[in-house]
Specification:
118 residues, mainly beta, SH3 type barrels, eight-stranded mixed beta sheet, two-stranded antiparallel sheet, 7% helix, 46% strand, globular
Length: 118
């Protein structure tokens, strides 16, 4: 399995500290792995559009990524009107009536870590 390194800035929520970068190893998730909380496989999830809470389309799921042990932890979003692919943790998403919604705005999405692998 090909591993991808992503630089992720760490932020302290209660104190002001200089931003530190950490390299995190992640792996693409096999297409047959069921991704919770969606209850569908990574392959099926990679065909879904992503909207914000107001129903505005933010982009599409490009890839499901996770730990080297094959545990899904995030989605890579191919953002609308952008050349970038952003890493969004699974806990930021919800699934209702087949619609995948993320609780970030387009502006917040653009500030998330960029996926460097293809």
């Amino acid at each position: 399995m090909k591993y991808v390194a992503i630089a992720v800035a760490l932020f302290a929520s209660t104190t002001v500290l200089p931003a530190a970068a950490q390299v995190v190893s992640i792996a693409p998730i096999e297409r047959n792995v069921v991704v919770q909380p969606f209850g569908i496989t990574a392959g099926n999830l990679e065909t879904k559009a992503i909207t914000d809470a107001q129903g505005n389309r933010l982009g599409d799921v490009e890839r499901v990524i996770g730990t080297a042990a094959g545990v899904p932890t995030a989605l890579v979003i191919d953002a609308e009107n952008s050349e970038s692919h952003f890493v969004v943790p699974l806990e930021r998403f919800s699934n209702a009536n087949g619609m995948i919604t993320v609780n970030v705005t387009a502006t917040e999405l653009a500030q998330l870590p960029v996926y460097a692998g293809r």
